[in-house]
Amino acid sequence: MRIATYNVEWFTGLFDEQDQLIKDGSWSSRRDVTKAEQIDALSVVFQTLDSDAIMVIEAPDQNGRRSTVAALEGFANAFDLRTNKAIIGFSNDTQQEIALLYDPDVVRVKHNPHGSFDAPRFDQEFHIDLDVDENQDIVQFSKPPLELELTTLTNQTLRLIGVHLKSKAPHGARNAADVMRISIANRRKQLAQAIWLRRRVVRYLEANEHLIVLGDLNDGPGLDEYEDLFGRSSVEIVMGEKGKNCLHDPHARAALSRRLGAKPTTSRFYIHKDKRFLQALLDYIMVSESLRSKRPEWRIWHPFDDQACWHDPKLRQALLTASDHFPVTLDLDI
Questions:
Q1: Pairing verdict, β 53-59 and 2-7
Q2: Kind of pairing between the strands at 126-128 and 107-111
Q3: What is the pLDDT of residues 74-115, one digit of tens each?
Q4: Number of continuous H segments (helices) and E segments (strands) in the chain
Q5: pTM score
Q6: What is the DSSP track for 12-40?
Q7: How many domains in the chain?
């Protein structure tokens, strides 16, 4: 079985108010890329991935007029993808949903959110003292994680949690002091969300569930100037550190094990002021210890770093055109 995660930059901008693809020469939200070019590139990437299930980060919008499921299923049917069914959980107001595209002939999927006293359901509120002032702060997810129960043809059950954690930019800052104050406050909220997610992870692991946490954590070792202030990244919190109830992702572990030298990357952003590209490790597929016996194989579909992608000019260009993130896949014997 192949499971993927893929952050598609502003996927919602490729659909009209009737959830139909806008395949024309107008500009997409990608720099110097038209909607038709991005759509064609995405079709190449999705077809080549040939996954049984794909966690789509920044999926098309869900609101009173638009449907994430209709948009994704329309996209799948337009390009004859076998992952032609879609499911979402709790929608949000950011126009960037979390959804799963899957092959209904291979897996059965249902939204199965959980909640407990110390880890409420992800569409609710989490109470935690963020600034150590002995007062409880209220934390909410701007993009509630997607909790799914996935059943295979062999009746194996997997728990999937699709995530998109993000620390907001310091909007409203008037000076450098404001930037620091707001950035630190937003960073605290992101780490609180990671703690909330971690508590749910531990509950699944303690129940001996097969668990996969996948998506964009927008955070990792060495990525944030405030990392030293807080000591840990969201990635480290969610995965767990040495001991029981840890999740595993070889790319995250490789990045955590070294301060210098080459590290895996899953995204590529153009920095206008520096006139250069920045690469970062933002996308992960973390698995429970119980799945490490299923011969897991991870792959980052990086157009320059993955040899097969590099030697396929059509796929290489499609990966660069489709999004500022690259897909990550996990193959499992299950």
A1: parallel
A2: unpaired
A3: 999 999 999 999 999 999 999 999 999 999 999 999 999 999
A4: 8, 16
A5: 0.93
A6: GGGB-TTS-B--SSSB-SSTT-BHHHHHH
A7: 1
Quote the domain boundaries for residue 115: 2-331
Two tokens at 40? 């064609």
Q: How far apart are CA 245 and CA 238, in angstroms?
A: 10
In this structure, are residues 298 and 250 in contact, taking their beta carbons and an 8 Å threshold? yes
The DSSP H or E segment spanning 98 is strand 97-102
- Distances in Å between the Cα of 328 and the Cα atoms of 37, 56, 148, 179 are 22, 11, 19, 33
d(CA 77, CA 326): 22
- CB under 8 Å to 108, separation ≥6 — which residues? 150, 151
Q: What are phi and psi of 106, to 5 degrees?
A: -115, -35
Alpha-carbon distance 235 to 19, whole Å?
34
Question: Which tokens belong to 180?
Answer: 């620091």
Distance from chain centroid for Cα 16: 24
Nearest to 42 by CA among 4, 71, 76: 76
DSSP β-ladder status, 247-248 and 283-288: antiparallel
Q: Give the span between the Cα atoms of 19 and 21, in whole angstroms.
A: 7
Segment 181-202, tens digit of pLDDT: 556 667 788 899 999 999 999 9
Which CATH number do you get for residue 127? 3.60.10.10
